[in-house]
Amino acid sequence: MKATLYHNPRCSKSRETLALLETAGAEVTVIEYLKTPPSREELKRLYAKADMTPRDGLRTAEDGAKLLKAASDDAVLDAMAADPILIERPLVETEKGVRLGRPPEKVREIL
């Protein structure tokens, strides 16, 4: 099974999710999204496949997220594309779907 992990190695949940995928035998493509951010269109596609809104994928603990409290989904996507620290992680895609690994066990649904 193949999996793509949008990963931040400094995040414990992201590291736990990577370990979970590796233990499950997945062939993991790791994308450090802060170094190689997904495009706005890619984020939109991932969230649609996960049945999430962009707001569901917003890292609300970041200062920049507070400015988006009343923003539209399009404005949230634009902000995430411009400042990828606003993307909640880890995000995992397999052929079975996309899940936000919060908690990491949620990823088991698409393995």
What is the topological layout?
Elements: E1 2-7, H1 12-23, E2 27-32, H2 40-49, H3 63-66, H4 73-82, E3 91-94, E4 97-100
Parallel strand pairs: 1-2
Antiparallel strand pairs: 1-3, 3-4
Helix pairs in contact: 2-4
Structural features:
111 residues; alpha+beta; 32% helix; globular
Structural description of this entry:
The protein is an alpha+beta fold and 111 residues long. It contains four helices and four strands, in the order βαβαααββ. It has helices at 12-23, 40-49, 63-66, 73-82; strands spanning 2-7, 27-32, 91-94, 97-100. Strands 2-1-3-4 form a four-stranded mixed sheet, with helices on both faces. α1 links the parallel β1 (2-7) and β2. α2 (40-49) crosses α4 (73-82). The chain starts with a strand and ends in an 11-residue tail after the last strand.
What would you say about this model in short?
With 111 residues, this protein is α+β, with helices and mostly antiparallel strands. It is built from 4 helices and 4 strands.
